[in-house]
Amino acid sequence: MQQVYIYDALRTPFGRLGGGLAGVRPDDLAATVITTLLERYPNLDQTKIDDVVFGNANGAGEENRNVARMATLLAGLPTSIPGVTVNRLCGSSLDAAFHGSYSIGSGDNDLVITGGTESMSRAPYVVPKPERAYPAGNGQMVSTTLGWRLINPKMPKEWTVSLGEATEQLVEKYGVTRARQDEYAALSHQRAHAAWEAGNYDNLVVAIDDVERDETMRPETTVDTLSGLRTVFRKENGTVTAGNASSMNDGAGVVLMGSEKAATLLDAEPLVRVVSRGAAANEPQYFGEAPVPAANLALERAGITWDQVGAIELNEAFAAQVLVNLDSWGIALDDERVNAWGGAIAVGHPLGASGSRVLGTLARRLKAENRRWGLAALCVGVGQGVAMVVENEDATE
Predict the structure, then answer these.
(1) Residue 198 lies in a domain
(2) What tens-digit pLDDT sequence spans the chain (397 residues)?
(3) What is the CATH number of the domain that holds 278?
(4) Closest to 147 (Cα-Cα) out of 12, 63, 57
């Protein structure tokens, strides 16, 4: 088995729903980050790129089903480079990194572009195809932006609740207070703003269509302002608001992965080594729990404990989900290891692109903070979780 490394990572700013990136197709978002990333390696013979693996949660619209191949062609890469798209909903682009690492570790490949893309602004409406032509009655148009659609009636009703209602059920199960959720959400915005101001995102984000920073970041956010927001999914006894949950966004990201041999192809040194992966599943309505067993499995496979983990990038689908995860791991809400450069509540969550964001940010954080072990994890709709452990071999701590 070959060692697997992450050499680079790049993403677009994440645009708000209907915002500055709403006019950009998801395949163009993906092509932009691929093109810009490869400009950093002018001596690379692009025919040496073995594969392109992208994550995408929709696939029903301009992604043309296999957006990895479409983006590769739009980016002007040699037509000999294949592309495949994977879908694990919110965890899709981390799953793409799983696939890239598998192929490199096995020795089949030496250089793979992985990533993800999503335009929730441009997600199409779909109309179910009738069983017979010209049926009587009205048709139904369904949004593909987020959540369940065209639900199979055989599915148990408790599994098919909205993500927000599922999070409210998680809140009830674990007794997570509204105050703690708002406290964590405010911290996410403050950390994201501080990271942008410090230049931490300068080599991680490429501006596109005059959008230079994540559009949903609000540095003025405080616990007091969040506490005044109305709940969204439950009018009575609800806790989840637009302020303590991630938003719907547009964006794309890439992670350049390779073997030790890839260092020669790229004329570059790797950032971190990929050590282990973990995927887990549980009851669909408790999707927010699933990063816990996924991360625990990844740590077990890496042979390390939580005390050794120096940086954690945990996707913030909902503040309540983050708190349930951290409580399960015995980690404090304000632990500096967790999402130190902000998370999805502040920067956004364009489904298929979020895995590449957390993984790329983790790799850069480990280098910037001189930490050895890092963990990237995401919850996934319909009750799944994914996680990856990476190592900064140059760390002196």
Answers:
(1) no
(2) 899 999 999 999 999 999 999 999 999 999 999 999 999 999 999 999 999 999 999 999 999 999 999 999 999 999 999 999 999 999 999 999 999 999 999 999 999 999 999 999 999 999 988 888 888 888 889 999 999 999 999 999 999 999 999 999 999 999 999 999 999 999 999 999 999 999 999 999 999 989 999 999 999 999 999 999 999 999 889 999 999 999 999 999 999 999 999 999 999 999 999 999 999 999 999 999 999 999 999 999 999 999 999 999 999 999 999 999 999 999 999 999 999 999 999 999 999 999 999 999 999 999 999 999 999 999 999 999 999 999 999 999 7
(3) 3.40.47.10
(4) 57
In a domain, 36, yes or no: yes
DSSP classification of residue 63: T
Q: Look at residue 234 and tell me if it is in a domain.
A: no
**Annotated active-site positions, please?**
90, 349, 379
Amino acid (one-letter) located at 355: G
Cα–Cα nearest to 181, from 40, 345, 315, 27? 345
Q: Where are the beta strands (DSSP E) in 187-341?
A: 249-258, 272-281, 309-314
Position 205 in a domain: no
